[in-house]
Amino acid sequence: MSNSIGTVMTIKTNCSTTIRRLPAAIALAVAAIPGTAYSQALEEVIVTAQKRAESLMDVPLSVSAVSGDKMMEAGIRNLGDLTAYVPNFQKSETSIGNYLSIRGISSGINQGFEQSVVQYLDDVALGRSPLARAPFMDLARVEVLRGPQNVLFGKNSIGGALSLVTNKPTDEFEGSFMVEYEPEYNTVETQMVLSGGITNNLRGRLALRYLEDDGYFENNLTGDDEVGREETTMRGILAWDITDSLEAVLKVEVSEFDFNGRNDELTFSYPNSDPTSPFFGLTYAEAGGLLGAASGQDIGSDDGKQNYKRNTNNAENSNTDTNNITLAVNWDAEDFTLTSVTAYMDYDLEESVDSDASGFAVWTNNAEEEYTQFSQEIRLVSSGEGSFEWIAGLYYQDWDLDFNVRTPLPTTGFFSALGLLNPAVAVLADGTNWREFNGDSELYAGFAQGTWSFTDALRLTVGARYTYEDKNGYREMNFTRTSTGELDITQAATARAVFGIDYANLGEATGGVFPIHRLEDSRSEDFITPTAILEWDISDGTMLYGSVSSGAKAGGFDARGDSAAADEFEFEDESVLAWELGSKSRLADGRVEFNTAIFYSDYEDLQVSQFNGVVGFLVGNAAEATSQGIEIDGRWLITEGLTMTFAGAYLDFQFDEYDGACSAGTGLPAGSVCDYSGKANIFSPEWTANASLEYVTGLTSNIDFRGNLDLLYTDEQYVNVTLDDNIIQDSVTRVNARVALETENWTLALIGKNLTDEDIASFSTDTPLSGVLGTPSYTTYMERPRTIAVQAMYRF
């Protein structure tokens, strides 16, 4: 299955022409020939999903490609915006991490996890959660590969891969400047690109992006608009033709994206059901009001309903700085191409989160995260001539992660008020809970894949990847007196009773700090992940394929846990065995493309993380799960100037065996374990579909009209990891539209997103500390309401 949204690299063809595995140089040459156009037919889309340039319709995978032009036109700024256009793919952002999900498979929120759906930027793996926040800029395309990508991408891509391809320097000088303004939330985005030759054999490209946004939530307590954003990205690329057959491309990218406030709010609360509790019959907001009155603290007015209003008193922020340096060297020999990709990247993240999600000064997590990564890939790709094609390579990666969280507990407010009802709790005031985690990894891999063409119509691809990885992990947790830096045993015992924190591994005092627990471990593992694909061209316009593959994702260590038990510090690897049957067809003299994919994936030992409703997380492996379904997509050139793109998916995901943290709706104490067998996973809607119409016509001799209409449907789905039926996001249909006037040099457009103003929850989690009051509650992250923006672009 393959869905193309917008133009990536195109070649006009007639219905009798079949372009298979076209080398990139030939594709570019043909595309550049003036007047290369035949009778009306869809434009051919060229992608590199299999590490060589080939037609999207010839890739035996379920893959969607979204062009840079489409992303610019539709206001697709990041992975979150992209989800509406790609079936069975979702991205959701939370206060402490990000979810990337394909066909219901994602990684939980924990700094010890690597992503099951991995981003690759110009062949460099970006497998950490904070990097999913990075904005899009000057991209040629994004390719979304569904299902395990275990050979050519390989690095933990057990659920799928997102291949982001940047625009490369051009020979001729060109440039563009774009500005977009949305008045409702005062959002301003600007982008500038300069590209061209510097000398006879040296080309350069410079891209700059800046975005500023006030936010679409109102904080009742502070009066601020949230979440405010400021994003700055700079990318420079130099391409040097060392010889006619040897090219080196150096890319340096620096980004800074900052957030102030959050896009979450209290949306649902169960009333306290304990007749002996002073909060009996009250919801979390009502119980908070009672404590606010007892402590004399203004905590704002929260009705506990979804209305884009929130009540937090601490100045929340998140600041991420990233650096990325990549050197790609390509040597075109007579029979093969040798590619070397050397990459260094790092990020620094500092954030402060008002984790109690209330106006009380209770629970503020101050976190810092530093990450560095080096990788080296060497890849050999055959020329594509003859009956046998092959790819082989070696891969090395090492990374190092430092993460810490400090949570000071104030001497006033919540604990002083709660202490009036339970004096033992008062000892928690003037305390600081803190965790430190250090992890590192060293990985070696080798891979090879070959395709045999038995006849012009029948091909077999066989490949495998061998991976060996060493990991080390260290975590220390302390609970100290803020004023003295020493642990008060009474304080620790009370914290254990109130919050369920495990202090079993008490050690000796060190420098005035008493370690609650200190855990250290290492692990190593290796995998062989094979794949086999059979392709059959049953006609000039239709290809059938079937594939079987296995995938694996390495285990690791829990960075956020509270338990001092050594056997709970480590989690194991996860694995999958996947089958896929598909077809790709060109119909109606090349005016219609229609593709299908039927998939079945059997996952074992899925890595999961669930918030326990108080202050901690449960991390482990979720035994077995099955993801199966059907995906369709296509394009239809209805008439000259009018094109439809469509896609749809049916997903049947269920846990076959899984004991996880119980939802608040069960009425069981926080941290209780429930059987989730037979239930769907988070972000697993049964049905998704989208349809886009694009109409282009000439208004005058040099001015064109371009109109786009997008209808985007998502079925109801769980958006919280404890799978509470009261927190299901209802089915929703979004409507986006764009109208534009264009000339060769400029574009003026009006862009509308979520025009029907749907309320859409992207994630929901148990409200921290609500369990302490016996009022289990949910805090929900909401997507942006309706926006209408003006966009202007000048090209030269």
Automatic annotation (TrEMBL):
One cellular-component annotation, GO: cell outer membrane
Stored Pfam families: Plug, TonB_dep_Rec_b-barrel
Keywords: Cell outer membrane, Ion transport, Iron, Iron transport, Membrane, Receptor, Signal, TonB box, Transmembrane, Transmembrane beta strand, Transport
Xref: InterPro entries: Beta-barrel_TonB, Beta-barrel_TonB_sf, Plug_dom, TonB-dep_rcpt-like, TonB_rcpt_CS
Signal peptide from the UniProt entry: 1-39
Localization per Swiss-Prot or TrEMBL: Cell outer membrane
Keyword Translocase: no
Domain TonB-dependent receptor-like beta-barrel per the UniProt entry, residue ranges: 277-755
First-listed, main subcellular location of the protein, grouped into a coarse class: membrane
Motif TonB C-terminal box mapped to chain: 779-796
Any one of the GO BP annotations: iron ion transport
Record's bilayer topology term: Multi-pass membrane protein
Every TonB-dependent receptor plug domain range: 56-161
Family named by the database record: Belongs to the TonB-dependent receptor family.
The protein's name: TonB-dependent receptor
Lineage of producing organism: Bacteria, Pseudomonadati, Pseudomonadota, Gammaproteobacteria, Cellvibrionales
